[in-house]
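Before the break, one more example. Copy the sequence into your notebook; we will annotate it together after we see the structure.
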Amino acid sequence: MLGLFSFFSFFLLLGALGVVFSRHTVHAVLSLIFAFFNAAALLIMIGAEFVGFMLIVVYVGAVAVLFLFVVMMLDVDRDALRAAVAPHKKWVIFFAAVFVIEILALVAYHPPQLGAGAMGALVPAQGDNVRALGMVLYTTYAPLFYAAGMILLLAMIGAIVLTLRQRSGVRRQVIAQQNARRAEDTVTLAKPPSGEGVL
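Here is what the structure looks like once it is written out:
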């Protein structure tokens, strides 16, 4: 376990140093994702698999999607991007191999069952921290959990209200008026004589 912990810790520090010292934004973002993944692996090793998976889903997913949107909005030249990545193919293969090794190591690793001595009364001897977190969150801390949800909802509504602007000169869609329109009120059938146009 110590060797595996040192393995993930080394690459976590390597990813963190890459975030700080990378001059290229793309390299910094990829290093950040790499660091998050290794931090999640360490959390899974100590038995906090829920927090580890949330770290991957929320942070890695959000960072990757945000980076994807930025690349789409900037309209990066793909040929120039390929030319910039081509000299670093060895590093790409190396980090891809590290990812595969880490995933295989996590699949083969079985964290020890946490008993009452390690987590107190929160985790039963044969339980997991996901079930314990759900039990504590929706029983002991349920009012605080609901209050946090309401605060986030109010913050979202407030952000929408503050950024909403009424602009003049903009034609807006009115569904009621569109549904009330009739064909005989808007369409006129004309029968012009032969050789003449419709004015």
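Confidence is low (pLDDT under 50) at residues 113-126. The longest helix spans residues 49-74. Try to locate both features in your own notes.
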